[in-house]
Write a structure and sequence with these properties.
mainly alpha, two-stranded antiparallel sheet, 9 helices, 2 strands, 69% helix
């Protein structure tokens, strides 16, 4: 079995009207606030013992799922400000901490017999899911083409789906690389500006302008692959949606099928974390 240690710094909710951020920083602040809102819903559901807890609504809550349930031992540190200017944020943070205090976990040492038993349970559940997925496929719930759809049309649709997923992944990777380049160039710009501030001279100002232009060119080059892949992915998505809109052409995966697929992935990941090779 495996031990997992999770350290999460959730930042604080940001009042965009007060901070005045724009562009990328505003998008980041909005995303953080959305994740924290869902985290609050999860904490509320756990504290009230609700039948459903919305772990799947954000990546953050999915990552913290094992910390709020099962055999975990969880500690939370709430940082607050003593300044009157931030009294609203401080009260919000303290209320959040109070809700967290209601949630309880039970830390348990997993010994050999327990791990083996848990593995057997997971393997049994996985076999059952495999059988249910096969049954759904046979009933046509696993995604299928309609009667009379030619092989060339089917191939075109499947190829478009594969290319769409490929370009989506390429765009995501390119955006990450572009963000890294942007961070690096911003650091260089700040360093150059700081150097000029302490050494005021015309040739230094010229060097800063040259460095800034070079950095902007680097960022533009870094953005090109992401923009190209995003454009291709958007075009393929439109084509796929048009193909799906043709009556009787394709019947998509059912919600039950998608749910079982997600559960199967989760079980496989759990077995991997426990150190068992999934077959």
């Amino acid at each position: 079995y495996a031990h997992t240690h999770t350290l999460a710094h959730t930042h604080s909710s940001e009042r965009i009207r007060r901070s005045g951020v724009e562009g990328t920083k505003m998008a980041q602040a909005t995303a953080i606030n959305s994740s924290l809102t869902v985290l609050g819903k999860v904490i509320k559901a756990l504290g009230e013992g609700s039948a459903h807890t919305p772990y799947r609504d954000t990546t953050l809550t999915m990552l913290l799922r094992s910390s709020f349930s099962g055999r975990s031992c969880t500690a939370v540190v709430v940082n607050v400000s003593s300044e009157a200017e931030y009294v609203d944020e401080t009260l919000c943070a303290l209320q959040f901490g109070a809700r967290l205090a209601v949630v309880s976990t039970s830390a348990t040492v997993v010994r050999g017999s327990d791990a083996a038993e848990e593995q057997a349970d997971l393997e049994t559940r996985r076999a059952h899911i495999h059988a249910e997925i096969l049954r759904l496929q046979q009933c046509g719930h696993g995604g299928r083409f309609g009667e009379g759809v030619g092989q060339s049309e089917q191939k075109s649709f499947l190829d478009n789906q594969r290319r769409f997923h490929k370009e989506t992944l390429k765009a995501s990777d390119s955006r990450q690389q572009s963000a890294e380049v942007t961070a690096a160039t911003s650091h260089r710009d700040a360093g150059a500006a700081s150097h000029i501030a302490s050494n005021v001279a015309s040739n230094m100002a010229s060097n800063l302008a040259s460095t800034t232009a070079r950095n902007m060119a680097d960022m533009a080059i870094a953005r090109e692959p992401a923009e190209s892949s995003s454009a291709q992915a958007a075009n393929l998505r439109d084509i796929i949606l048009w193909q799906k809109s043709i009556k009787g052409f394709y019947y998509p995966l059912s919600h039950a099928y998608l749910y079982l697929e997600a559960e199967l992935k989760q079980i496989t990941a759990s077995l991997a974390m426990m150190g068992f090779v999934s077959k």
